[in-house]
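Changelog entry

Holo records now carry the ligand SMILES as an explicit input line rather than a separate metadata file. Below, a converted record for nicotinamide-adenine-dinucleotide, shown in the new format.
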Amino acid sequence: MSFPPLASLPSHIHKILITGAGGYVGAETAKLLLELYPGVKLVLCDLKAPQSLGDRTETRAGDLCNAKVAEQLIGDEVDAILAFQGIMSGQSEANHALGYAVNIDSHKNLLEAAKKVFETKGKKITFVHISGLAVFGGERCKPEAFVDPMTTPLFPETSYGTAKAIAELYLNDYSRKGYVDGRTLRLPTVAIRAGAPSSAASSFISGIIREPLQGLPAVCPVATGPNDPAMDTVPIYLSRASTVFRNIVHALVMPAEKFPSYSRTVGVPGITVTPRQIVEALEKVGGKQALDLVTYEKDPKVIHIMQSWPGAFDNTVALGLGFVQDDPKTGFMLAVEDFKAGLKT
Ligand SMILES: NC(=O)c1ccc[n+]([C@@H]2O[C@H](COP(=O)([O-])OP(=O)(O)OC[C@H]3O[C@@H](n4cnc5c(N)ncnc54)[C@H](O)[C@@H]3O)[C@@H](O)[C@H]2O)c1
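Structure line, unchanged by the conversion:
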């Protein structure tokens, strides 16, 4: 499936600050921006300075929980921010203070620094914030639910989801006040996540493919074995990684006027797969030897978190805004093939 081409970079955007750029989604989105927009310059920031991506990038080290760091980074020249820094769901449960500091305070620091630029220079920075499906929870958001993100109340059941929901509201309000031009994206699980496993409860979804394709063992934490009914009944909402990166760039370049006056939040489209479809894709691409590296061990903590994540969403609004969706029949398989191809390069 090919998607329509992305719009040009708006003429006022020359330099983009990417925070959390040493992480998976930040680094891959940075590469895509450099490929798509030959004139763009990037400032890549993380706790440790990220790897340079060439002469159109500057790299910085800094902890964004420090408001001064956020102010210095934005400085005079940044026209847009893609804010990827985050503490994932597992670690946010284990370390409440750190989760809140990074998932809320560091984003507020960036928003405050951008507001200062608006108030002193009249420049409105485009601000893309990344949220996730963990903002949902409660009775209407069981795995079997089909959720309309525009009308479903947010009852997050994790500290990660709570922090993401709070940061979404900040972004909406700073946009409503005119301090920034904000866009906040609830990403589905990004598949297949390359590199090291993350501390997200959903980390196993990529792990079951990523590790065995590299000859390493992986655990499926939602079933006791291939015959467990959970293999067919636990729906997982995800998107092919390349589609996610494309949707993030779309959020940056789409016109602000397309959003309703009351919200800058978008549920990025995904597709629903089951654990069975994941292991079947693994066998198809990696053969029986890869499949044999998967073991099964139910993890109550993972299951508890997964049970508050809906398995399917109504994407009408997001598609109307120009975001794109993988083909439900082929999307996951393509994600696995992308990952395998990446291993050879
Ligand atoms: N990967 C997914 O499936 C997924 C799904 C939904 C939402 N998200 C969100 O997307 C964003 C990026 O995810 P990812 O998978 O690339 O995560 P990642 O863990 O690979 O990257 C996050 C980066 O943030 C950096 N960071 C943490 N604290 C920081 C601080 N105080 N100052 C500066 N940098 C700091 C980390 O060093 C890390 O490099 C996160 O906000 C995450 O919550 C990801």
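Spot-checked after migration. The pocket of nicotinamide-adenine-dinucleotide is lined by residues 19-20, 22-26, 46-47, 63-65, 84-86, 88, 102, 106, 130, 132, 187, 189-190, 193, 198 (CB under 6 Å). The domain at 15-188+241-269+312-326 is CATH 3.40.50.720 (Rossmann fold).
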